[in-house]
């Protein structure tokens, strides 16, 4: 089963299936301007917002200082655990 996005539906309404596709036909859909509007205004009808599997791993958006401190702490814990496993 395939899903046609809002932008895809807009394109299909403008262009018959047998017509030759030109960049100008889809430029407004792929230029990034619609995506910027989606990201800045939250307008889900504006365009396509790409995300990856990592999106499901994001549970908070900390301040940079907190994030760096957390990364350092987790790295220290990881290294200590690996060293302990090697030494004992």
Question: What features would you describe in this structure?
Answer:
- By secondary structure, this protein is mostly helical.
- Helix content is 57%, strand content 0%.
- It has one domain.
- It is built from 4 helices and no strands.
- It starts with 5 loop residues before the first helix and ends with a helix.
- The model has no long low-confidence stretch (mean pLDDT 78).
Key traits:
single chain, 88 residues, elongated
Query: Over all CA atoms, what is the radius of gyration?
Result: 22 Å
Low-confidence parts, pLDDT < 50 over ≥5 residues? none
Characterize the biggest β-sheet.
none
Structural class: mainly alpha
Could you write a compact summary of the structure shown?
With 88 residues, this protein is mainly α. It has helices at 6-14, 23-30, 33-41, 64-87.
């Amino acid at each position: 089963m395939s899903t046609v996005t809002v932008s895809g539906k807009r394109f299909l309404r403008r262009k018959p299936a047998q017509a030759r596709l030109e960049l100008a036909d889809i430029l407004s859909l792929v230029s990034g301007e619609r995506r910027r509007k989606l990201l800045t205004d939250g307008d889900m009808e504006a365009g396509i917002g790409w995300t990856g599997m990592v999106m499901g791993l994001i549970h908070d958006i900390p301040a940079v200082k907190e994030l760096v401190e957390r990364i350092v702490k987790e790295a220290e814990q990881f290294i200590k655990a690996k060293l302990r496993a090697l030494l004992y």
